[in-house]
Amino acid sequence: MILKHLPWLFIVLAITSAKHGKRSDVNSLLTKVETALKEASGSNEAALEALEGLKGEIQTKPDRVGQATKILGSVGSALGKLNSGDATKIISGCLDIVAGIATTFGGPVGMGIGAVASFVSSILSLFTGSSAKNSVAAVIDRALSKHRDEAIQRHAAGAKRDFAESSAFIQVMKQQSNLTDSDLSIIAANVPVYKFSNFIGQLESRISQGAATTSLSDAKRAVDFILLYCQLVVMRETLLVDLAILYRKGNAEHVASAVENANRVNKELAADTLDFLHKLIPEQALIGAVYHPISASETSKAILNYTKYFGVPDVPRPIGNRRYKFTNSYWNTYSICSEAYMGNYMFRGCSNVRNPNIRVSKMSDGFYTMENSDRRKLYITKHDQGWGWGTLDEDPGDQGHMRFIPLRHGKYMVSSKRWPNWFMYMESSASGYIRSWENNPGPQGHWSIT
User: Fold this and answer.
1) Cα separation of 63 and 115, whole Å?
2) Secondary structure (3-state) at 349
3) What is the pLDDT of residue 376?
4) Which domain of life is it from?
């Protein structure tokens, strides 16, 4: 039996307290993590040895059960990713671990220098060598292969080199059993906390530019760069978490605290950089149209996961499957209705809409259909010339598969899957027909959906 030298752990499985956590949970996690480490490729002896140390600490210090449970949970979810060989999964594994540390201890400094810290440090060693180097290079190369940007390209080589050198240096220094003041000085000289800032700063600049762009290709580039930015910030934090633990090992607590503070500041800066995504203004609707619907894009889903970690407020209220009333912001007594005109079905603004009359249905790919529920089944679609036609087809096609872009003032903008940069608006005419306008149509294209 894997834990035969700790039989008492199994005898007291039912012991539970809010402070200490369930022993049954930590037992299960210990077994899963140990099995995963033994099955993983590569050299995991150090991690297995550290796991044994963690078991011993749980035996002698019951108050560590709760902390160990949370850390083992984050490590367990990360192990398969760290050994996957896939850059995106590896960085997602990094996120699992740093998020686990942040929620359990408030940061690496709070971990102390006990068995939990040693175990986490040994797990970080699984990727801070060649995996970190290869992952950083892979996500940078992937983003730049899709978007030509000479300024970013110039800084990319330096960023890849910085990550590679720093991770390799930390790995070597972790092999030292006793760190001297001289060793700590060498570490500080070779892994300064400000490394990687140039490239991350360049990405912040591109994100800022792309936020207000009127070019669909630039908006797509900005969203891809947002994902790259999130990945690099997390990789940087992961390296510095390992660095902070290393300083604690050398009893340089003031330096470890400084590193942790640098991480905290950079996490706040990342939140500031990404905050606009969930508080869009109309001029940022195009990047919002690339980002939404989040469930339709693997890139957007990954970004959302990172924003939660950085502390960015959630996306505003999502649209559900039910009837809504779409009221125009410019003519706030007019809402969308339909009419028959010369054999065609048209959508327009009407002043006599009292009840929700547009049925919104979410499709499996995350987009929506908008169907008039007052008369025969009509889907709103964008015609090639911009008209909001009604179609009787069961599936209106990507001309009628809609996305809703939430704005910070509670209104929405609407565009189709085929033309993400053409937004639904109510035209200035006696008929008030519903049409589409390229980029921000102003308040005529802002809708209150109730």
Assistant:
1) 13
2) strand
3) 66
4) Eukaryota
The secondary structure of residue 312, as a DSSP letter, is P
- The continuous run of DSSP H or E covering 414 comes out as strand 412-416
What's the pTM value of the predicted model, to 2 decimals? 0.88
Cα–Cα distance measured from residue 449 to residue 325, given in angstroms and rounded to the nearest whole number? 6
Rounded distance between C-alpha atoms, residue 407 and residue 280, angstroms: 5
Query: 26 and 10 in contact (C-beta within 8 Å)?
Result: no
Asked if residues 273 and 209 have their Cβ atoms less than 8 Å apart, the reply is no
Per-residue pLDDT tens digits for 26-62? 888 998 899 888 887 667 888 899 999 998 888 888 8
Domain ranges for the chain: 42-310, 322-449
CA atoms within 13 A on the CB side of 304: 16
What's the rounded Cα separation, in Å, for the pair 419 and 400? Answer: 10
Q: For residue 117, how many other CB atoms are within 10 A of its CB?
A: 24
What is the rounded average pLDDT of the residues 111-134?
82
What is the rounded CA–CA span in Å between residue 339 and residue 435? Answer: 14
pLDDT tens across 317-348, in order? Answer: 779 999 999 999 999 999 999 887 766 778 89
Q: Given this model, what pLDDT does residue 298 score?
A: 95
Phi, psi torsion values for 390, nearest 5 degrees: -105, 135
Give residue 4's pLDDT. Answer: 37
Measured CA to CA, the distance from residue 182 to residue 252 in angstroms comes to: 12
Interval 393-433: pLDDT, tens: 778 899 999 999 999 999 999 999 999 999 999 999 888 99
Pairwise CA distance, residues 432 & 9, whole Å: 73
Phi and psi for 180 in degrees, rounded to 5? Answer: -95, 170
Cα 124–Cα 129–Cα 54 angle in degrees, nearest 5: 25
DSSP-based three-state secondary structure for 139: helix
Distance between CA atoms of residues 417 and 433, nearest Å: 21
What's the CA gap between 1 and 18, in Å, rounded?
29
Fold of 322-449: Trefoil (Acidic Fibroblast Growth Factor, subunit A) (2.80.10)
Which single residue is written with the structure tokens 């809703």? 404
- Residues 228-277 have pLDDT tens digits of 999 999 999 998 998 998 888 888 888 889 988 998 999 999 999 999 99
DSSP secondary structure code for residue 442 in this structure: G
How far is 439 from 293, CA to CA, in rounded Å? 17
User: How is residue 338 written in tokens?
Assistant: 């339909």
